[in-house]
UniProtKB/TrEMBL annotation:
Protein name (record): Mitochondrial GTPase 1
One Gene Ontology term from the biological process aspect of the record: mitochondrial translation
Organism of derivation: Nesidiocoris tenuis
Binding locations of GTP: N84, K85, S86, D87, N157, V158, G159, K160, S161, S162, G209
UniProt keyword terms in alphabetical order: GTP-binding, Membrane, Mitochondrion, Mitochondrion inner membrane, Nucleotide-binding, Transit peptide
PANTHER family cross-referenced by the UniProt entry: MITOCHONDRIAL RIBOSOME-ASSOCIATED GTPASE 1
UniProt domain G: residue ranges: 150-249
Similarity-based family: Belongs to the TRAFAC class YlqF/YawG GTPase family. MTG1 subfamily.
GO CC aspect terms: mitochondrial inner membrane
UniProt function note: Plays a role in the regulation of the mitochondrial ribosome assembly and of translational activity. Displays mitochondrial GTPase activity.
Length: 323
């Protein structure tokens, strides 16, 4: 408590960056071949689905969604926007988020979910909402079919496959069928239909995470990177850590000081990483070109990975990255 008071006092006197200098523009251009192929597969499969379930990260509800989905899928099927990882998001303004999405993005149905908790309200509402929307829709060429088919889409790593597995585990008590992983790009193509419910009979098609081939602006790219929707090495883990530090300071969230064993808040990522690496004993041996011997230096990449991972697992609290 005393330490927190000291940190807050120190922070009042600090003059931190008001803007982030986005130097790495690589975040705008990550579109590997499987994404282009995946988009075509999604379009091809659209004829055989009754509803599109778009999954996005609840920490960035207003940015980072792929506008291509809207253009390509064109509202021809009922659509639900699932804001997943709600356990990591600050949802005190959930109703304002929903209003924003309804008014500005034309989204009609929004659910907040935590795919890791099948008992969360949003997960429980998924099957009834899917059933209701399909029931209210004109199923075109599919009206004779008893089974419902849903396609899940979204940017990478937002929990698309986890949601499918969670529904399947909960509703059918069957083991997971979609591969899941902590890095972007685990699902590489549209796969086979996965059964998730018997009554009503619902199948879901998983799809690879697809980014906008040209992300709107660099800050959106950094937000996606911080939420693991891009591979860390493309952006650079130290760049991601720097953006995180800027963000936490801007929000006056100084819990990182205690967690990383620092003396006080800082605006310098280099200072933070060196201090954190030293205090946690993260070092690496480097060849000294002059002497030919080895010297031990702080391992800044490992320190940056730890710092960013703490944020990703909720170690600094729940956040909305969008204003
Ligand atoms: N905290 C939290 N983690 C989640 C949640 N849903 C999924 N995850 C984790 O997020 C990571 C990505 O999950 P996936 O289901 O593979 O995501 P995806 O959207 O299918 O990813 P790609 O196939 O790579 O596009 C995994 O480590 C999951 O355990 C959630 O609601 N909360
Ligand atoms: Mg997946």
């Amino acid at each position: 408590m005393v330490r927190l008071a000291r940190v807050l006092l120190a922070s009042a006197e600090l003059n931190f960056r008001q803007r982030f200098a986005f130097t790495n523009k690589d975040v705008l251009r990550w579109f590997p071949g499987h994404m282009g192929k995946g988009m075509k597969q999604i379009q091809t499969n659209l004829r055989s689905v009754d509803l599109v379930l778009e999954v996005h990260d609840a920490r960035i509800p207003a940015s980072g969604r792929n506008p291509q989905f809207e253009y390509s899928l064109g509202g021809v099927r009922p659509h639900i926007l699932v804001l997943n990882k709600s356990d990591l998001a600050d949802l005190t303004k959930a109703s304002a988020i929903v209003s924003h999405l309804k008014q500005n993005e034309g989204v009609t149905d929004v659910l907040f979910t935590n795919a890791k908790d099948p008992f969360c309200k949003g997960m429980k509402r998924l099957i009834p909402t899917i059933t209701r929307l399909i029931g209210e829709s004109d199923r075109h060429n599919r009206s004779e079919l008893k089974e419902f088919c849903v396609m899940v889409i979204g940017v990478p790593n937002v929990g698309k496959s986890s949601i499918i597995n969670s529904l399947r585990n909960k509703c059918l008590r069957k083991s997971s069928a979609a591969p899941v992983g902590a890095v972007a790009g685990i699902t590489r193509s549209v796969g086979m239909k996965i059964k998730v419910s018997q009554e009503p009979l619902i199948y879901i098609l998983d799809s690879p995470g697809i980014l906008n081939p040209r992300v709107d602006d660099v800050e959106t790219g950094f937000k996606l990177a911080l939420c693991s929707s891009m591979l860390d090495h493309l952006v650079g883990i130290r760049n991601i850590a720097d953006y995180l530090l800027y963000f936490l300071n801007k929000r006056q969230c100084f819990t990182y000081v205690e967690k990383l064993n620092l003396k006080e808040p800082t605006d310098s990522i280099d200072f933070l990483l060196v201090s954190a690496a030293i205090s946690s004993g993260k070092t690496v041996k480097r060849r000294d070109m002059a002497t030919g011997g080895y010297t031990t230096v702080p391992d800044l990449d490992r320190a940056a990975t730890t710092f960013v991972s703490m944020f990703r697992s909720g170690g600094f609290g729940k956040f909305l990255l969008d204003d």
